[in-house]
Amino acid sequence: MAGYPGELDFVLAMGDERYKDAKKHLLSMISHAREIDSAPTLAGCAQRLGEILFAQGDEESAIALHEFSEFIDKGSLLAKLDHAKFLARLGKQKAAKEKCEQIISIANDSPFAETDTDFSSEQYGEAARRILDGMKPR
What we know:
Elements (H helix, E strand, L loop, with lengths): L6 H9 L3 H17 L3 H17 L3 H14 L4 H14 L2 H17 L11 H15 L3
Helix pairs in contact: 1-2, 2-3, 3-4, 3-5, 4-5, 5-6, 5-7, 6-7
């Protein structure tokens, strides 16, 4: 089950293509993230807004919001990984490859263990390699 106010409702609204409702629930999530001063949650909200805009045909703004999520949560490999997955989904292979290589490099240069709130650097590296493998011609 989703963990933040509005998160489950957001997911359900997106699944039903009710983008106006999704935006409403996203605002609830943003409000909560601001209350708890959570950069990772705010970054995720930026990416979710990007998903709404992408679903409505605004690819350029969606990409910009994924880039912005990395600014909001500086140094976050999760924001970078989600951005890489989004780029790969759009077929922007060169940009996705560069983002994955950046994740792998950071994960290798600055290893860290898994915590209750984050994956380990090794897990991020593995996830980035899976994205790269998924982009290879079959």
